[in-house]
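<backbone_tokenisation>
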Amino acid sequence: MRTLDHAGKTAIIILTYNNLQYNKDCLASIRKYTAKDTYEIIVVDNNSTDGTREWLQEQPDIRVKQNDSNVGFPKGCNMGIALASAGSDILLLNNDTVVTANWLENLRTCLYSDEKIGAAGAVSNHNENLQGVDFSYADLAEMQRLAEKNNVSDCEKWEEKIFLIGFCILIRRDVLDQIGPLAEEYSPGYVEDNDFSLRILSAGYKLMLCHDCFIHHYLGSEFRRDLTKFYPVLSKNREIFFRRWGFQTYCFDEVDYASLRIFSEPEREKRIKVLEIGCGLGLDLLKIKYACPNALLYGVEPDRSKASIAGRVAQVTSDPIEAFPYSFSETDFDYILVGNDLEKSEAPERFLSEIRKLLKEGGTVIAKFQNVMHYSVIRDLLQGNWQYAGNGLLSRSNRSFYTLNDIQKLFDRCGYRNPYVFHWFSMPSEEEKRWIEKVCDIADEKKSYLYCTYLYSVKYQK
């Protein structure tokens, strides 16, 4: 394995199609904030018409490939990769970005910290795929000051991911040689980075998000502005992805914020055992691992396509959710996350009792429940309506519906203790507030918050 000291140059591949000012800003920032002799810039222009082609020809320190037509993002990137110097790592960078102090150095430090890391990505001012930051700025000058403070190399800021957005991603050359270039079936673009990420994972490598590498992203794609073209292409590419991988791309967004919100993080270095039932692609488990790097991760995911991906980051079985006992022999879990599976369960008391057997003494189960007592449900019911929906308060997939009292009784019957309840509120209008007050008068109970809560996140101990 090559070390960072012997990694050679990084080939920065940039695709351009119009947006001349973005192109100028991007290249100027690379020159200013990247150490000399550590990189080469290769620009592939997709037949720009705004002066970009002519301007690129005037730049003495870049290699340019001029296309006579717009070949799209995946094919254009592959053209750039083909022009890169032999053995150089590849960095795919959108032309509507502005890089910052230590950006490439920090990505390279992460990439070469572990031979099993195949690619590293940056964070930005947009939170797609949870790759955003918690600070904002008024202009690029302030952005650069904040970025300099943020971009201090720190391995505790490296987060393992299932997927990295392709706006800024550094790929090790030997990994790229092994898995091949971007899939051109996704041209003119979108979803190819999801596919590329999974191919890296499937080859046995990790994807790391570097929170110590922030860059600015305008998110100004020319193609994305024309929605009449964008959505048909996105639909086509999602279908290609589904045929390849067996699940939809929206699964990359299925993070259970409601459960993670009440996860009690132990000391960072403590070794804990965590089981998630219905773990999907393993997104929640990786969030827990970022907070607790020594956590031992386990999952149950009946969808075999998802389980095969989650199995790259955790020990996962594809047993049915309620097929107790599970095929793994592990017990004594510190935490078990069950999401909303109790609402879908055929036998919720048996489900909770079986889960209890897997917890260590003092271990915690975390669940979430839609509140059937929400004012919108009661109001509709009083008007003669009980309308099921695809998801939400009256999801068709639910076998049971719960109020807070129902939740507490369920856990009490199964022998759990030390309840903690987090209320997720929706703010009613003034008219709705008056209506809720009337309901409280009828119920003779001044607890309006019970009618404003649409979701409960709860945790109980064994």
